[in-house]
Amino acid sequence: ALLQVEIAHAKGLRGCVGGRRPNTVAWARIVEKGKAGKPQPVSTLISQRSINTTDPVFDEKFSLSFPGLNTPSEYQLEITLWDQGGVDKSIPSDSNFLGEVILNLVKLKPWDGLVLDQLFNLRQGQYANAPTAAGQLSLKLKFLSELQPPSPVGISLVLYHNWDNVTHDIPGMETQLLHDLASGLETERARLELVGSERSSQQIMVSGQAIFPVLTHVNIIS
Fold first, then answer.
1. Pairing relation of β-strands 209-211 and 204-206?
2. Cα separation of 115 and 214, whole Å?
3. Which of 149, 162, 183, 197 has its Cβ near the most Cβ atoms within 10 Å?
4. How big is the chain by its Cα radius of gyration, in Å?
């Protein structure tokens, strides 16, 4: 299964010791409930829109996969916010924890395939000794219980032949085109799906003569 996560922005975060405003990063990962150890999180990047502010903007997207197509109840999305303006930026501690969002993925199952755009309150959660968390985090979430096959890529090719002169041999031209295209792309012929050919609406000049060329449409299947 797959969870697409867009970490949009946060607002109203707590300030830091001495009145400094935080330089914020967000960590995201999917954890299995009741299992010891957690996977390495993905992290947003520090940018001018996320430093020295209690209202950071991230606008970053991640795709997080997890096993078990029909068992989202066993997994949670964990997003934690951290201030990286401290002395040691590489080791998170209670002092630079800014809040967390924990979401049981079973709650997203009714939204399978749809985008959920929601503002979540940041919680103190597992870091009870940290300064009190405050603020909200805006997330866009798309839960996919089954991975969808990739969509084909459509291309259109202009053949420098006068449509009026080759209409009798369009099938032969299409067969040769697919063969040459598969060779040029170094791919299997089976990955190329012919959509069809038509007379282009735009004239072009070929050897000093204005013609309406052949326009052939092909799907490339991933």
1. antiparallel
2. 41
3. 197
4. 27
Q: Write the CA distances from 98 to 56, 76, 117, integer angstroms.
A: 12, 19, 22
The token pair at 189 is: 């012929």
Indicate the burial class of 56 (C-beta count within 10 angstroms; 0-12, 13-18, 19 or more): buried
118-131: per-residue pLDDT in tens?
999 999 887 777 78
Which tokens in the block code for residue 129?
Answer: 């000794």
Q: Taking 70 as the threshold, does the pLDDT of residue 19 lie above it? A: yes
* pLDDT tens digits along 35-66: 777 888 889 988 899 999 999 999 999 999 88
The CA-atom distances, in angstroms, between 190 and each of 2, 119, 134, 175, 197 are 28, 46, 55, 12, 19
Beta bridge partners of 115: 142
Q: Please give the helix or strand (H or E) that residue 193 lies within, else none.
A: strand 192-199
- Pairing assessment for the beta strands 153-159 and 214-220 based on DSSP bridges: antiparallel
H helices present in the chain, as ranges: 163-166, 170-185
C-alpha distances out from residue 210 to 156, 160, 176, 198, Å: 20, 11, 24, 17
- 0.70 exceeded by the pTM? no
3-state secondary structure of 15: coil
Distance CA 173, CA 168 (A): 10
